[in-house]
Specification:
Elements (H helix, E strand, L loop, with lengths): L17 E3 H8 L3 H9 L5 E4 L2 E5 H9 L2
Antiparallel strand pairs: 1-3, 2-3
Helix pairs in contact: 1-2
């Protein structure tokens, strides 16, 4: 096996892994500021990427399903 053949190949997926705060607001039919407030309460996993907040889709979906 050649060295370049050892590179692990993973299937390409188009499934989203995160939501933006705007998407959270749209899903819940609330304002963006209210969505930021929810994110700050640590109800689901969030990560800050530069100036943006991204919400873990699995943790948000789990939180929403529990309500």
């Amino acid at each position: 096996m050649a060295a370049d053949e050892k590179i692990m190949k993973t299937p390409a997926t188009n499934e989203k892994r995160t939501y933006s705060v705007q998407e959270i607001a749209e899903i819940l039919h609330i304002s963006r500021s209210m969505a930021y407030n929810l994110c700050s309460q640590s109800l689901f996993k969030t990560v800050r990427v530069g100036k943006y907040v991204r919400v873990s889709k699995p943790s948000f979906d789990e939180w929403l399903d529990s309500k």
